[in-house]
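seq as requested:
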Amino acid sequence: MPKSKRNRPVTLSKTKKKGKEHKEAIVNSIRQAIDNYNSIYVFSFENMRNLKFKEFREQLKSTSRFFLGSNKVMQISLGRSIADEVRPGIHKVSKILRGNAGLYFTNLPKEEVERLFEQYEEYDFARTGSTATEKVELKEGPLDQFTHEMEPFLRKQGMPVRLNKGVVDNFSSPFNHLLG
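struct tokens:
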């Protein structure tokens, strides 16, 4: 039996693909930055927050330029081999572009750049999967800081809790030594 034409998924989003022109614009702007700036650095990041990065980028806006995006597009703009590199030896930079990485173009001296990157540190709330920086101990008894909806989550994390008249209650269990 033929497939029904009625049972087709219909996309409701109106987004358009960026296309070849967008990638060519990135390649051209990176090549222009190669001509405008003396130094190029590859930086890597982990759990980067967009707002914090914007603040850092704004601080260095007058002396430098950042590029984030597809590693392959950035590699193509630098040149992947000796044959297609834009400047002599710059294809070595494209070999380092792996994972979460970006390009930083600047006219600042190396010591100043290292100082800026080492000095800039912003604290923010932890995301899922990040390791705890502090040890928290919860006493036995009612835990007013948690709502009743948090009880299943706390239990899943291995905490000996129960609901007592709508209040999360931490209790001592004979099996606590097994929880670690």
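The chain has a mean pLDDT of 85.
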